[in-house]
Design brief:
The protein has about 750 residues and is of the alpha/beta class. The protein is about 40% helix and about 15% strand. It has an eight-stranded mixed β-sheet with strand order 13-2-3-6-7-10-22-21. The protein has a four-stranded mixed β-sheet with strand order 1-14-17-18.
């Protein structure tokens, strides 16, 4: 089988994802399948049928230890929470760096760190607070590369910590903690105080000095603060921590405790714990889809669960020496946690003719969820019979947990009583964003985000042409039923934006009853959703028994990953409308000049910008650090790229958006913390972008005032003079030297690279 046959020849995005993220070097599909299945023919068959996929780390990395690569097979870890001492705080940063270097994401909880103002006996006299160290951990996450991507981090704090309000506000500054998700551990006591409008005590006792720091707040006001910040910035997320601790297989095991959650929050884990993921594609278990005879294949599904539990345990054993830290190896050995989940739920419901979130869909998902939990627990018990229980297994304690009693049949209970369990944690629902995109299905338990997306193409005549790109399941249905207009789709085609949030949470609640870990999922709400409604959503999620919730409001200050139509971006004045291909605007002497002196992490940076005197469009930028060396040369190169972009017809907001996406600089972070005199931003490109925007706005204000003066007639701008960019050469991607065209192919005479090879 070739990759085109597996994913579909028309699924170019999926093919590209496989080639660039999961294939190793030039593997064929069959070679890749053999590597990631580890020689397990049953699992290879399930992957071939698109019924199951391992998590991304396994798909990309399994077997690479045999070619000398040190890469973990676990998606994420939870690092032991830093203790309230400087050595432990920086030891945690060291553990983050080492884990990222092996390809794992991390979660840490900072609830043990002293709040701001606590007394200490060194030069500082008092602490900067727990929140101040979030920048450190975010910076480490940004700096350690992972094959073209950056590490992933979740930072959490307890709702009773005196720094919790600082924590809530930290990401309202869009330049801070840019490489971490943040969540609050919310207790039952806090939620009850919210419902009854009572005061709530924030408290912390510093063990080193005995100092007690506490503050009484109104619970409902603090809750409103969380809701308001989430409404505006999509963070922090909520972790209903008592539910996390109580609804699992280890809630009666006194020697076990959760230390935090992974970056997507679907895996609560002990210190050093890791999540080893795999997902079953529910849509492939629908028999006779899109017909009145459509049904779910429970027998096939249960067998798939058994096979996948065994396969994940094979990977767990194989990956034991590949964990970055000794404490991670020990945790995995002692608790043997795996995370089998699902994807394609929305596709499954559409194939069955059921509307996501209605009573029939919830009833079916409850049946599937119970079958999955009962079967997985039984499979782990049979593995315990064969290979022994996990080292810290106490079968009697497990069997008395509410989760076990609610999710097992009599035969399964007998198996566990007799053999114990091979795994302390079995089920989780991860986001599966990349996996589901590759397969062309819905991710995790998410509803279909939109039935279609609008795309734009530019015709040869310079006119924008818009067309619809249908979601794959929608396209398949429309073809089978010969529908040409999406308005004719039946009522069970619902989307994330058309669902009532109660339906969305209802679906997550049904699945959480049968998942011993947690669920990573986002509730999408429309832009008109209010702060009060956001608070009500949190409260409803708590009352429905969710372990956590993430909310994303369309139009909030953090950009969404998906948009159902092309965003109406803010457009600025553009230099030279109607440019031809390969043309840029020629800059004359008749320009408006502005300048700024910026303070960056390593000193001053001078920024000069030239603007069109008629439209106020940016034409050129000049940057100089007033020194020689790499940084100054970088600034010169950056200024040239800004200038040619502006003169090529790209509006200033697009340019600034790119500059603001460049992350943070360690020198910038240090100077801001010590001297507190840096210009806005967290690195030089960001500071330049902010300066350009300020100068552009000044020019626009000046032009508006001038044109608004009575008797003043705005000058008609002359037709822009365009010049062709000449002497452009195609450069070798390997060595950067010019390519030549010979024998029908691009060749590099310097290093021998060939496009045709």
């Amino acid at each position: 089988m070739e990759i085109q046959e597996w994913l579909g020849a028309d699924n170019q995005l999926g093919i590209d994802i496989w080639k660039h993220k999961y294939r190793y070097q030039d593997e064929t599909f069959e070679q890749w399948l053999g590597r990631v299945s580890g020689g397990n023919g049953t699992i290879a068959g399930l992957i071939r049928e698109k019924k199951f996929l391992f998590g991304g780390r396994i798909l990309a990395n399994r077997g690479l230890e045999y070619v000398g690569r040190k890469i973990t097979l676990s998606n994420c870890y939870v690092i032991e929470p830093p203790q309230d001492e400087i050595e432990s705080i920086f030891e945690c940063a060291k553990k983050l760096a080492r884990t990222y270097s092996y390809g794992g994401g991390c979660g840490i909880d900072i609830s043990l760190l002293s709040p701001r103002g606590a007394k200490i006996n060194n030069a500082a006299k008092e602490t900067s607070g727990a929140v101040s160290f979030m920048d450190l951990y975010s910076l480490v996450t940004e700096l350690i590369g992972q094959n073209g991507r950056r590490g992933a981090l979740m930072i959490s704090i307890d709702c009773s910590h005196p720094d919790v309000e600082q924590f809530i506000d930290i990401k309202t500054d869009l330049s801070r903690v840019t490489k971490a998700n943040i969540s609050i551990r919310i207790s039952d006591a806090f939620m009850e105080a919210v419902k009854n409008n009572r005061d709530f005590l924030l408290h912390y006792t510093r063990e080193a000095t005995g100092e007690i720091i506490q503050q009484t707040v109104n619970a409902r006001e603090l809750f409103h603060h969380i809701a308001e910040t989430n409404w505006d910035y999509a963070e922090p997320g909520a972790l209903f921590w008592d539910r996390v601790k109580e609804w699992n297989l280890l809630s009666n095991t006194k020697e076990f405790s959760y230390a935090g959650v992974n970056p997507c929050a679907e895996e609560p884990l002990p210190a050093g714990g890791s999540c080893l993921l795999g997902s079953i594609n529910l849509s492939q278990f629908v028999v006779e889809p899109f017909t009145s005879m459509a049904s779910f294949d429970f027998d096939g599904f249960k067998q798939c669960v058994r096979d996948c539990v065994r396969a994940l345990n094979e990977v767990l054993d194989e990956g034991m020496p590949l964990h970055p830290l000794k404490e991670q190896q020990e945790s995995v050995r002692d608790w043997r946690q795996i995370g089998l989940g699902i994807m394609g739920l929305a596709d499954m419901l559409i194939k069955l003719g059921l509307a996501y979130g209605d009573s029939a869909s919830l009833k079916l998902c409850g049946r599937i969820g119970f079958a999955m939990a009962d079967t997985a627990i039984a499979a782990s018990a049979l593995l315990a019979k064969e290979k022994g229980p996990f080292p810290r297994c106490h079968a009697g304690e497990i069997m008395e947990t509410p989760f076990f009693q609610a999710n097992t049949s009599v035969p399964t209970r007998e198996l566990v009583k007799k053999y114990g369990l091979h795994n302390s944690q079995l089920l989780t629902i991860a986001p599966t964003g990349t996996l589901s995109t590759m397969l062309g299905i819905s991710g995790g338990i998410e509803p279909v985000f939109a039935n279609y997306y609008e795309r734009k193409t530019e015709s040869l005549h310079g006119k924008d042409v818009f067309y619809k790109v249908y979601t794959r399941i929608v396209e398949t249905y429309m073809k089978e039923h010969k529908i040409t207009d999406d308005s004719l789709l039946p009522d069970f085609f619902v989307t994330a934006m058309t669902l009532d949030y109660r339906q969305r949470i209802g679906m997550q609640s049904v699945w959480q009853e049968h998942i011993d870990a947690s669920i990573s999922s986002t509730v999408n709400v429309p832009s008109q959703f209010t702060v009060e409604e956001t608070g009500q959503l949190y409260l409803y999620a708590y009352e429905k028994g969710l372990k956590g919730i993430t909310i994303f409001r369309d139009g909030c200050k953090r950009v969404g990953i998906l948009t159902p139509e092309e965003e109406k971006k803010q457009k600025g004045a553009v230099a030279g409308e109607g440019l031809g291909r390969g043309e840029i605007i020629q800059v004359n002497d008749d320009v408006i000049g502005k300048k700024r002196k910026l303070i960056t992490g390593c000193g001053s940076l001078h920024c000069i910008a030239l603007f069109d005197p008629y439209s106020g469009a940016l034409l050129e930028a000049y940057l100089s650090k007033g020194s020689t060396g790499g940084c100054n040369n970088f600034m010169i190169g950056l200024s040239r790229m800004i200038s040619i972009s502006a003169r090529g017809g790209i509006d200033i907001h697009t340019i600034i958006d790119q500059l603001n996406s460049t992350g943070s600089c360690p020198s910038y972070t240090v100077r801001r913390a010590t001297m507190k005199d840096t210009s806005r931003g967290s690195c030089c490109p960001m500071a330049v972008g902010n300066a350009l925007l300020d100068m552009y706005n000044e020019v626009q204000d000046d032009l508006a005032q001038k044109n608004g003066v009575a008797g003043h007639t705005p000058l008609k701008p002359p037709k822009p003079q365009a010049v062709k960019i000449r002497n452009q050469k195609m450069l070798c991607p390997e060595c950067g030297e010019p390519l030549v065209f010979e024998g029908g192919c691009n060749l590099c005479k310097s290093c021998g690279w060939s496009k045709c090879l």
